[in-house]
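TICKET #2291
ISSUE: user wants both folds in one file
ATTACHMENT 1:
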Amino acid sequence: MVIKKLPITVAELHEWLQGDDPAMSVMGGLYTDALIKFPVAEGVEYIYIQSAPGTMICDRRGNFRFCGIYLRDSDQIYNGKFSMELVRDWVEDHERTETAMLRDFNAAVRLRMEEIVAENREKYAAKVLTSSRLKAELEHYREYESREDAARRLLIASDPANIRFKAHFEHRKWGDELIRYLTDRDGTVKEAARDYIAHGGEEILLDFLKADILRERYIELLKDPSDPAYTVKAVSDAVEKSHAKYVKVTISKGGPEVTVMTEAAGFVGYHSYYDPGCLLSADKEAFEQAFGKYADYTAQDIVRIARGTKTIYEAPKGGE
């Protein structure tokens, strides 16, 4: 049997994976280890390394270590966990990691649910919330999250009519369905959506109720130009339009003004407050002396923002 010296190359790895040998002997230092393929479904194999005790690539007990999932038809490795000690030119494809696949699966199930449920509240949603957990979640959304969600809508000038049912399905950890997902993605997504709809009537109602709250909150916000969210929008729009990478921001909390240099990107989008943590050390010291070590600042504290010598945003004067 040919023994490959560690680290092997990606080409050597795929040559073995495409072949019929269930194992490949590899040598790291004085020890001979084995890469092993373990079939788990048609055309799908788990990859492990069984390492000799005492080697640097495993624990001292010589246990199996998971290295990835191999799909033979596409010759692709998913959830690959190859270190440079095993495969010298291995470059992980982040779109095939466990986290990325879970993100894509959740997004696909949500979209499928929204296509099915749409606005058919009577058919798919429960009539009332009976779960104390879901009731508490709804009240927390009403009191806190809906305000910021409405402000984010303001920043993109969203139409209130576009606020509809939005599914919040989230599968947090893969189980056996990962293999099914890799071999039949559309079928696995449809099955998950059907199962959630069949048993998640209260969660679906919760999402409808959240949409109702957000729509009402946003309509109220559109009628109140004095809301602080409009100042956040003005700051964001001005900085984004300037295309600046760095800006000088002048801050005042009712006393002396302090001007500091910071990254422009931190002002784009909705922010309930701005973090001074990214300021240059000298500017951070000046900020802390003026406002305190653990202080932050809001859009209402900004007097002006400048790109070089040009002012790109200035707070309205009193009474304007």
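ATTACHMENT 2:
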Amino acid sequence: MFLIVVALSFFLGILLLFAERRHLARNIQTITQHAQTLRNASNSASEYEQQLRTFLEGNAFALAHNAQGLCAERKIFSPGLFLLGIACALIGALLYVLYFVFFAKARQIPLPPFESRPKDA
């Protein structure tokens, strides 16, 4: 029975890893496009940041400033890696959870900066 659980969790873990990567790329594209839409609709940098903060907090992300500018950040738990940890006789799952809680850094998605537009006369 244990071998069936290990084999099944290994197979599902690999499938979930590929699905997570595809999903992450789609999320990055969606967040960037929405940020560009908000940037085009905003009149000031503070309004842009406030709208971004509202949008990102509604989607469990945080707005952060780094050296490159604004970015959306979030610690993302990987069920695929967790299942692969179960496939490693449950020790890997425990190690992954400990890593996620104590050592994992938040993924950062760069956002387009606000550029002031000249007023049309």
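RESOLUTION: both attachments delivered.
EXTRA DETAIL ON ATTACHMENT 2: The first strand starts at residue 62 and ends at 66.
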